[in-house]
Design brief:
disordered C terminus; 455 residues; 10-stranded mixed beta sheet
Length: 455
């Protein structure tokens, strides 16, 4: 009976219960993984809705140009053993404008697909500038023949389906309509970049010219440009109140308010780091590293916030479990491990309630509803289990404080590590001091205020 008594004593000791609680915390990683997968699935649905609206309305737009593009030909000799073969290589001479002034006026809207909303916009983009006689030394030094008669002025646009009015360009005193495509062969058929162009002929391409045009363009999520001019100036006005200005260049001046924003860029050629003449094999990546502009940021992103919150889930479950354990040491009734499990599942389901409500009433409202419901549920449950209203209220207060801390961590991303580490240190210290008088090996519950029984 000595061994049986020893095992029974060990099974009833606080140390064994403490280890069992740790195992439960680790086991709750399984339902938390399923919750994470559910959140990821909802995020994929939102991304799919975003893509569908983009396809119908217009994708995120990047405007590159205008450029004067002239095809070139040069001979390339290939030596294979005793055989010498000469091939003609087709490349493109791209000339950038000397001055470029872009003034977009952007009006934002929201389109809905099911329960998801995506910001879209209508833009009116006025563009003026000048081309000077091009510098061709970099090209002729490669023994290239420049086909001036095939010169075009082209603008590369991510999604030309967003163009909502026939675009015309004024070149000097003449006006011409843009045509579809880049106007030059830049690769295999079916792999031409999305663009519009207008033929300009050899004389204009050689001598330079002023130009101006207006582009009515629909898009979604973002509007970007490249500093194509030797001196590029952009003044963008929009009624969207939450812009995210990003890319290779940040604006020199900006004003953001509840009614919209204004942003202005001035980019000289030296900052751009590229010359006025480019000799390239294709247009796909032309000036792509210099893209900059604005993303129409949605300030509430439930799914990324929920995924971040799930990273703290096991830590917060551990805090609640240890708080219940400390109270159990001082209570008249023990809390069974199954009841700990129920509490852990309630804390895990919090994230599903958060996403389900946030999709309909917004993140702040959904977070408040989920946190309040979970705190009330677990607090009242622990109060009933321990037969103590005071302990139930204490658990309610602890869980409410945890969710307040979690909200602070989600909103203060820059200080999340500092806040989280200090909070973890404080919680560990609280548990250590609250259990300092517990007799971990005793089968009887120990409390700091307990007195030994009389012999």
């Amino acid at each position: 009976m000595g061994l049986v008594d020893a095992i029974r004593r060990l099974a009833n000791s606080p140390a064994f219960k403490f280890l069992l609680i740790i195992l439960l915390i680790l086991a709750l990683a399984v339902p938390l993984i399923f919750v994470y997968l559910m959140v990821s699935e909802r995020a994929q649905y939102a991304a799919k809705a975003k893509a569908e609206i983009g396809r119908a309305w217009g994708d995120a737009q990047t405007i590159r140009g205008p450029f004067v593009i002239v095809p070139t030909r040069r001979e390339h000799t290939i030596q294979r053993g005793n055989e010498t073969r000469t091939e003609q290589v087709s490349e493109l001479a791209v000339f950038l404008p000397e001055t470029l002034d872009i003034r977009p006026m952007v009006r934002s809207e929201e389109r809905r697909r099911g329960i998801y909303t995506v910001p879209v916009y209508r833009s009116e983009i006025a563009v003026t500038g000048t081309f000077e006689p091009p510098e061709t030394r970099r090209i002729t030094s490669k023994d290239a023949t420049i086909l001036w008669d095939e010169a075009v002025l082209a603008i590369l646009i991510t999604d030309v389906r967003g163009i909502k009015r026939t675009a015309e360009i004024a070149i000097g005193a003449e006006t011409a309509k843009f045509r579809s495509g880049p106007g030059v062969e830049t690769g295999p058929p079916g792999r031409q970049p999305s663009a519009i162009h207008v033929p300009i002929g050899a004389e204009r391409a050689r001598q330079g010219f002023p130009f101006s045009f207006r582009l009515d363009l629909n898009g979604s999520n973002a509007l970007n440009f490249v500093p194509a001019g030797g001196e590029t100036g952009i003044e963008l006005l929009s009624d969207w109140p939450h812009p995210s200005l990003s890319g290779a260049f940040l604006p020199d001046a900006r004003t953001i308010s509840d009614t919209g924003f204004e942003a202005a860029w001035k980019i000289p050629r030296l900052a751009r780091g590229q010359g006025q003449t480019q000799h390239v094999g294709g247009l796909a990546n032309l000036m792509q590293p210099t893209v900059f502009g604005v993303r129409f940021f949605q300030p509430v992103k439930f799914y990324s916030l929920a995924e971040r919150a799930l990273k703290y889930a096991q830590g917060f479950i551990a805090v609640v479990f240890f708080a219940v354990f400390v109270m159990e040491m001082k209570a008249e009734r023990r809390v069974h491990w199954i009841q700990y499990l129920f509490v852990g599942l309630a804390l895990a389901i919090f994230y599903l309630v958060l996403i389900g409500t946030a999709e309909h009433i917004g993140f702040e409202g959904g977070y408040l509803a989920a946190a309040t419901a979970t705190s009330l549920l677990v607090g009242s449950y622990i109060g009933t289990v321990t037969r103590s209203t005071a302990k139930g209220l204490q658990i309610f207060a602890i869980i409410a404080a945890i969710y307040a801390l979690l909200h602070l961590l989600l909103r203060g991303e820059d200080y999340a590590l500092l806040i989280g580490s200090l909070a973890a240190f404080a919680m560990l210290a609280a548990v250590m001091f609250a259990t300092r008088n517990v007799d971990w090996s005793s089968a009887e519950r120990s409390a700091p205020e307990a007195t030994p029984s009389s012999p």
